[in-house]
Amino acid sequence: MRAELPDLVIVILTARSDEIDVIAGLDAGADDYLVKPFTLTVLLARLRAHLRRRPPSSAPEEGPIRVGDLTVDTSARRCLLAADEIALRPKEFELLVVLARHAGVAVSREVLMAQVWDENWFGPTKTLDVTIASLRRRLSEAADASPHTLTLPDITTLRGHGYRLEAFPPGPAPRTGHDVPPS
Length: 183
Description:
Radius of gyration: 22 Å
Helix content: 25-40%
Largest sheet: 4 strands, antiparallel
Order of helices and strands: EHEHEEEEHEHHEE
């Protein structure tokens, strides 16, 4: 396993506590050896520690994500509406990245919380709603400030599930930042 997946974290979870068993497991290629009984919190802490020590992935950075006139450049951590940069807070940017990567697809609250905050987040998910509202406001303000007619994607709330960044197919009558809903 170690030969085929060198970056894989291998942790042995066992009831065998003899010193020779521990040595054999670690010498066989395991990164860690945990003897039962152990708590889940200890296991998770050890896994986090191992993952912190891993070098960053050598996978190439993916290119900018485009949805309408919105461009999210993950490698430069920039968000552009047409050619104008939008200043976003870190969590707003990370949230937009997740939504843009899944444009047109429903993304659950749980997935957003796990990917943007942390899978161990114990605070209220109201944080997600506040960040979405702030992100919508910043995108709308940027579209309104632009002298150009822009295709601005909407962030749709899916009650009881999550959110979706609406991807607009090429075609007539895109929604723009200057459109005002009819009264």
